[in-house]
Amino acid sequence: MTRWFAPGRINLVGEHTDYNDGFVLPMALPMGCSAEVRAADSGWTVVSRQEADPVTVEATGLADRVDVPGWASYVLGALWLLHDDGVDVPPLRIEVDSDVPTGAGLSSSAALVCSVAGALDDHLGLGLGPDGLLDLSRRVENDAVGAPTGGMDQLASLRGEAGHALFCDMRDLTSRPVPFDPASSGLVLLVADTRAPHRHSDGEYGARRSGCERAAGLLGVRALRDVTTDDLDDALARLDDEELRRYVRHVVTEDDRVLSVVRLLDEGRLPDVGPALTASHASMRDDFRITVPEVDTAVEALLDAGALGARMTGGGFGGCVIGLVPERDAGAAGDAVRAAFADAGFGEPDVFTAAAEAGARPA
Length: 363
Ligand code: GLA
Prior knowledge:
The chain contains 10 helices and 13 strands.
């Protein structure tokens, strides 16, 4: 039997920049998924502590991608791809157990995929190595499950380091840990899970991605990462479509915000990153248009309660908000979010603090 653990993630800044070959700054969370892989007599069975029914693929083997419930496709997806890659996958039983809330923008799916990929690599002696694990995990989500995501989540889950955020260049997939320890500055990273149901998130995500690709094509660049802040006005003037202009403005300024936050963290100026986080939220709300009233309300409440900066994290249309808050104000800030939600008639949010932890590992 082999067991691996892989964490969920929070993205500190750099939203919807990953599929534009840009920059992101996520960190791995303490919460995550553990996956146990063991030999079985026949077939391939996946069991989740969070799901009522196990899923077994027997008669069809791994050659046919049978219709399975969404969560199971993240596990079986790895087996399908390994089979396609020519690996002779023996009968297996895979059990997963996760404490990452689903639909909260904390990458429960990356935690699931990366824990399964790590455990399979070990159990089958595949020798994938760090780059191979990243490649397999990304392909599970993009090719097997069919979600057009950009790869940041798997990278953060695999390479996260305790006490650090991970500065990633999503063009060449290089990354470097950057110190991120709010406690050493008397701060906490507060997370408010709005529990807002994701609305149209799949179609809207794909629409943003294809809009960005269309804009890059019209501007004659490989990806929007290649438009700099100096080029921005000129690029905007060359686009007729107001929606595409807003997308370009978001991505170009967001890449720049990642670079400025990394610079500040490298200089040991963590308390100074707040304004860039808040500006990122405004850009997601006004230009990229991926926020919903619940997340805007949570951000406003955190800022009113003394947060140095606050923003939605993750793909959008619901999910979590993060705020950088002086430790002494953390309780009051949580109360402020809950009160604002009650006033607005929203359901109760879940508010907690988060620290950066290590990435995927044998458990
Ligand atoms: C989701 C995707 C990531 C990334 C973010 C937005 O989490 O899985 O690849 O695009 O949205 O930054």
